[in-house]
């Protein structure tokens, strides 16, 4: 039997198919625009478009130590006539910027990526907006100059080792939306003296506070004892305060009954 050649699509048809693929592709695949803009504090930062009207800061400098001082991140930036809302800090955006002293983030921002401020050793103050919901793993690891930290109440998730090695922080105010404290979150926070753990926290990793030195008081607000990652997450010298109505429940629990329990 004679075989007939399969007709190839015309150039016009191929063009239409290509256009269909481009239109059907996700916005993130199409939009990889990057540009630079100067902040109100006079710092030149790099941005990447992540949506039609949104950008993330993706500052990646060859010499990050050149960026320094007090940085005020704007709510929006303009590029080629388009106004973009600043909604996130990308992974590693300010990592190793050892001359940055303080950062103020806008109320449009809702996420901080992994390692975003890793080893910013001069960073003393970070002003987090009430819109923030997530902070990635190791975001502030090794920020040895950082002092007291307040997590806004919209923050529902923090990553592993997020504040590891922040050895000058005396107090952390945690978000009421937080449900878990992950591995190494406050590891080697040697200046930390006390911590109030909100009522929504259901699990505490065994290594969450590993390497503490000054910690002497933990206040647990959950009437259901949080589940620790091991039998003894803290040393026996720690005083644990719990809600009065849940005191007997804590006293009877294997994990918390071994500590010096006090009622709130």
Overview of the molecule:
It is a single chain. The protein has 264 residues and is mainly β. The strands form five sheets. Strands 1, 2, 3, 5, 6, 8, 10 and 12 form an eight-stranded mixed β-sheet that branches. α3 links the parallel β19 and β20. It has a single domain, classed as Leucine-rich repeat, LRR (right-handed beta-alpha superhelix) (Alpha-Beta Horseshoe). It contains three helices and 20 strands. Helices cover 9% and strands 28% of the residues. About 8% of the residues have low confidence.
Search tags:
elongated, 3 helices, 9% helix, 264 residues
Output the CATH class name.
Answer: Alpha Beta
Q: Which value, in Å, is the CA radius of gyration? A: 24 Å
| Mean pLDDT metric | 88
What is the end-to-end distance? 92 Å
Q: H/E order of the elements?
A: HHEEEEEEEEEEEEEEEEEEEHE
- Beta-strand residue percentage: 25-35%
Roughly how much helix do the residues carry, as a percent range? under 10%
Task: Compute the number of strand runs.
Answer: 20
Counting DSSP H or I runs of 4 or more residues, the number of helices is 3
The gross shape turns out to be: elongated
Query: Uncertain regions: pLDDT < 50 for 5+ in a row?
Result: 11-30
CATH fourth-tier homologous superfamily: Ribonuclease Inhibitor
CATH topology grouping:
Leucine-rich repeat, LRR (right-handed beta-alpha superhelix)
**What is the level-2 CATH architecture name?**
Alpha-Beta Horseshoe
